[in-house]
Amino acid sequence: MKKQKLGFWEIWNMSFGFLGIQFGFALQGGFMSRIFQTLGASKDEIPLLWIAAPLTGLIVQPIVGYLSDKTWHPKLGRRRPYFLIGAILSSLALFFVPYSPALWVAAGFLWVLDASINVSMEPFRALVADKLPNSQRSYGFVVQTLIIGIGTWIASNLPWMVSQFGVSDSADSGVITDTVKVAFAIGAFVFLLSVLYTIFTTSEYPPEDMEEFEREKAQKSNFIKDITNNIGSMPTTMKKLGVIQFFSWFAFFTMWSLANPALTEHVFHTPAPIETAFDMADSAQKLAFDTANTAFQKSSNLVGSAMGIYGLSSMAFALLLTFYTSKRRINRKFVHMGSLILGGIGFLMMNIATPETLKYCFILIGFAWGSILSMPYAMLSSSVDPKKMGVIMGIFNMFIVIPQIIAALGGINFISGLLGEEAINAMTVAGISLVIAGLCNLLITNKNAITYQIEEN
Hints:
The protein is mainly alpha-helical. It is built from 19 helices and no strands. It has helices at residues 8-15, 17-38, 46-49, 52-69, 80-96, 103-131, 137-164, 178-201, 210-218, 223-232, 236-266, 283-325, 332-349, 358-372, 375-381, 389-396, 398-417, 425-439, 447-450.
């Protein structure tokens, strides 16, 4: 099928739902560890509590990709039914997670939240490849990254923003602050609204041969066998991109799960107080705990705001690439390599950062994030069968979730422990991992993946 080139606003509309998805991911990534710590988790327990996120992605994304390839609804099309289901479930989970009364409840909500986000997210990746010709793939994924950057920055700043309007940062022991509750409620509303916007403003191409599509759909299929066959026939470029993805997502999972304990302790010098270290029956001891806890909550707001800066710099990075890729080709390989190495330097700089200079670390990390969200998918989509785009994108997600599972099961604690007991060592591990990911781009040799020749109008 000859796909029509789309204008900026058409690409913007089809990607706008990612604003809500990123609100969900940014609130989850920036504040779930804070919620876990408030409910009593130690910093060594946090990575394992996060295992819900990658495990649900490992299971959900290939299934959703496989099913969406075989779906056609006369009104909602192929991908949009999954946008809608995921948005409704994610919004409900976002609203309720800050009201968790115990650690196990919060961990359970993370399972529900991440599974629901994944139901929406994978079809959005596939939609770009469905709708755009090869010459606009980089452009499309970069516009998507621009929207993700906006969502990351706003959502990461929400607790700080609402605190400026007088919402309290103080709370009793084991209770989530009102700033976090209000921020997650706003996120739930934005998630649903932005996905609905894409559903109502974007159409999809129907199958070229509807009768053949229905015949194939009616045939018995073996999901496990089909997934296994697709994994076995994985293109070489996809495998090489998988190596890059492994080290990239190991680094970012480390940041999401451990940046709050690492930076509140090392940069702001306000670690989460341990309740058992205080005699809560003694009024002076209780006051000391409350003071330390409020300081931790306020510095956690500032860590969240600093993390939001990586969304802002990824947005600026994406904006520059949007203007450039709308008219010219880029060397995706070297853009991705340079961006990842800069992000790695940002993580390493956290060892010497102050509250005033922490933002510069996240500016560099934003270049890596902007590239991670666009370049691998642009390279991949130019190297696979378009009829299998959904399932391939789902399988590609394995290279994202497997390193996170390894990190959660003790990989972060073990490797950072080799450097010492300080929580900041986890950020050093993230930096080294991201530099390795950047250098692995030298493995990519497929010219069609590296840069695609712009088609003539």
